[in-house]
Amino acid sequence: MYSNKLLKIILAILSLLVVVVFLICYFVYEDIRHKNENYHTLLYNLSFRNDKQNYLTYAQKTIGSLSLDINRMDDSIISKKGEVEFIENLESVARGSGLSIEINSLILNNNSNLASSSIDILKIKAKTKGSWSASYTFLTRLELLPFKLRVNKFGLVSIDKEVTSTEIRMAVSSGIWQSEFEIDVLKYK
Amino acid sequence: MFNSLPYELKEKIRSEYHLRLLIVVFVSIICIQIFFLIILLPSWFISLNKEKEIILQTKKTDSLSLDSEISMINSKIKSVNARLNIINSTLEYPKATFFIDSILSKKTDNIYIKELMYTSLSNNTGKIVLAGISKTRESLVSFVKELEGLKLFENVDLPISNFTKDKDINFSINMTIASQHVQ
Description:
The complex is a heterodimer. Chain A is built from five helices and four strands.
């Protein structure tokens, strides 16, 4: 028969073991819970990052496929130092239409609506001389230029001295026509 | 009843019995706890592996460069949109050639044009002044009616003073572009 003392020692050890094993179980359980929570947080972050990656890929693809249009849009605005090139372009269109051209003024108009943007409006006034058909061709080509522009005014006057009855029959003067026009065109600041 | 054991011995046996019973209970508890622990262990390993895997995947994708690339692409999109908005909203006007073509298509041989003035008034309105010589009053009136018939102009104004002569009439017609016909 065991002595009571020995049994009490065994009981004490067992109770200690119960507490220790309980604590181990608790910590393992807590660790699993923590690991799962961490896993879900990281999974959420990863899926958020995947969404971002998908958005980036989609945006890059879209911009890539629209690059031609974006370039065309950029080219429709006169570059920072492109006034001279534009004027030369305008002069070549006029000469190509069979007109002589004289640029009267070139003013950079500080538009209040565009103050916060990188774009401004360039105002050009000019005169041309030539036949009716050349002047009209010039106006058509002017409106078809690949620039964002507005024809504010376009006045076309026949500068013939006398109108002959033959010309009246032809319906427009076969002589010299003078046009005065004013255009606005977008330009980078 | 006859007791063969003395009272002290009986108490000792009873106490030993209780102690042994408690030991059995504690051993059972420990067994249950160990069983519970064994059941928990696979879950712990699974959780550990899942966590490791997701950490590895997270490390693979570089968050900083992704964010900077997104902010770059967003600023590019914003800038393109801003330019598009400006292009779409500014410098709009009724195209002169469309209206002049329409006017000229109605002109007869009796109408001689000396002057043409186009002015854009706003995004969707404009003014055209046409001056010239008409052979007869009838041809001038007919020309004005044809212009009105185009339905491109809000009003086609021919001042009455243009009819002072009956032949080779100098005329001036003012036309205001109707906003719904802007091309």
